[in-house]
Amino acid sequence: MKLLPDFTLPDEPVRPGVAWDLGHLRPALLATAVLTVIGAGVALLFADLRALWGVLLGFAIVAVFFTISSWAVALAGRHDDRLTMPAALGSYLIKIGLLGVLLVSLPLDGPIDVRALAASVVAGVILWSAMQILYVVRKRQFYVDYHPPAPKDYDQ
Hints:
5 helices; mainly alpha; 0% strand; single chain; elongated
């Protein structure tokens, strides 16, 4: 009697060499730049230079983290579709760990306002998530491997 299903994977990669789209990066980076300028202006108007540095660092962290993880998932997907989930989860764990270490290591009364940093990270994550969702929803995707019909198919 078998208690666990067989989880063996085929030896050959699934859909290797398929181009993974990183087209969401440009609009997300542009939106982050706009939000960074707005956040910097708000920080200067209502707070101080510490808040400005927090806002700038927060949005920079989000942009770098999302760009690197998108690249890692796309690189894994080009090799084998089955590697995209481990790449996404692995990069997520690394990002959370690095962000945690950074936030714990920053002194509360140091040159960077930790609350402004945290707020800009949250705002940046929401922005990047929304931009990725919008990109996927607006992109035309086929649910099967589409091959345009050959000219001979029209003659019949």
